[in-house]
Design brief:
- With 147 residues, this protein is mainly α.
- It has 2 domains: 60 residues, no CATH class; 80 residues, no CATH class.
- 70% of the residues lie in helices and 0% in strands.
- It starts with a helix and ends in a 5-residue tail after the last helix.
């Protein structure tokens, strides 16, 4: 039997190796952001950029309308989070605290719908929303969280 000290040491070594594996893509992304595009995929890999190019960030922000994209994301995320929190709280309260006829059937129906992969419902959802609202609006992205 392994003593407690060795088990703890083995645990720490495993956690340290796991953290290195999970942090490596972040380090790769940061070093690539500070390099010239021609240096990114050189073999063997260069881990410290030479020269360091901070102007890559300014170029990336000026190439696309970053402010517009950020604002669009805020609108969609705020609408989805608000809708999901409110409707989930109401649904959870109804299923957990209230007694009503057909509750188990509708709970099973809800669970079945949640188990469907997103890819299965993507095209029918798109076609349904295309008939209901204007395609170039935020409503098809926000309203499903509210209903």
């Amino acid at each position: 039997m392994i003593s407690k000290k060795y088990r703890q040491l083995l645990l720490y070594i495993t956690l340290a190796l796991g953290s290195v594996i999970f942090i490596l893509p972040l380090v790769w992304m940061l070093r690539s952001a500070l390099m010239d595009a021609s240096q990114i995929f050189i073999v063997p890999a260069i881990w410290i950029p030479e020269p360091v190019r901070f102007d890559n960030f300014q170029t990336a922000l000026n190439t696309v309308p970053f402010g517009k994209y950020f604002f669009n994301t805020l609108i969609i995320v705020f609408g989805n989070v608000t809708g999901a929190v409110l409707t989930s709280a109401l649904c959870a309260y109804s299923f957990s605290r209230l007694q009503w006829r057909g509750r188990n059937f509708f709970f099973g129906l809800l669970m079945t719908g949640l188990m469907l992969p997103y890819a299965v419902t993507l095209i029918p959802t798109f076609l349904g929303w295309q008939m209901v609202v204007e395609p170039n609006s935020y409503l098809p992205l926000i309203l499903p969280a509210w209903v």
